[in-house]
Automatic annotation (TrEMBL):
Signal peptide: none annotated. InterPro entries: Acyl_CoA_acyltransferase, GNAT_dom. Pfam families: Acetyltransf_1. Residues 59-162 form the N-acetyltransferase domain. One of its GO terms (molecular function) is acyltransferase activity, transferring groups other than amino-acyl groups. SUPFAM superfamilies: Acyl-CoA N-acyltransferases (Nat) (SSF55729). It comes from Puia dinghuensis. It comes from the Bacteria. This is N-acetyltransferase domain-containing protein.
């Protein structure tokens, strides 16, 4: 049975970087993007190593093979991964339950990806339940942004329990801000 765990080795980090690169929007066809989804941000092994020292990400391994990952970006991670600063800053200004999100305990999902042979088998749910298991004592909310051009990702997040709290435009396009509330 596949189960979530925290990243614990350089081999796992290398596999995350490789899987991310293989599913990067710029590296796959329009047909694959529409059918399988895609990831938007680039993560090098060096950046991943630094991020995992701050807050390890959640992965699912099948023996020695990475089946999927869900990257953890806490507020402390922003210096290491500045691409996330606009997302974090925008989310901080949004109201939720009568307060700005910036006044609440949240972190960002930096990226989630499931390897091709494992798609459609509930790994998104397993990865996110891992995040809840490992991080719900420290954080109340998990937030990410999803492109409307990635309906597979939107559907998977809704199935987990994420809700859309905002839609906005930036230089990269249109984004749905989605939130999973653990309170």
């Amino acid at each position: 049975m596949l189960s979530p765990k925290l990243v614990s080795s350089d081999k796992e980090i290398a596999q995350i970087a490789a899987l991310s690169n293989a599913n990067l929007s710029a590296n796959i066809s329009a047909e694959t993007k529409a059918k399988e989804g895609f990831v938007s941000w680039v993560y090098t092994p060096e950046i991943l190593r630094t991020l995992h020292v701050i807050a390890p990400s959640v992965i699912v391994m099948d023996g020695d093979t990475l089946a999927g990952y869900a990257l953890t970006l806490t507020p402390e991670s922003l210096e290491t991964y500045p691409n996330a600063i606009p997302t974090f800053n925008h989310a901080s200004t949004l109201p939720y339950k009568g307060r700005l999100l910036g006044e609440q305990r949240f972190y960002l999902m930096g990226q989630i990806c499931v390897a091709e042979g494992y798609r459609g088998k509930g790994l998104v749910q397993i990865l996110y339940q891992g995040h809840r298991q490992f991080y719900s004592k420290t954080y109340d909310l998990l937030i990410t942004e999803i492109s409307p051009a990635n309906p597979r990702s939107m559907k998977a997040h809704e199935k987990v329990g994420f809700q859309t709290i905002d839609t906005h435009h930036d230089e990269a396009g249109i984004w749905h801000v989605v939130l999973w509330d653990w309170t």
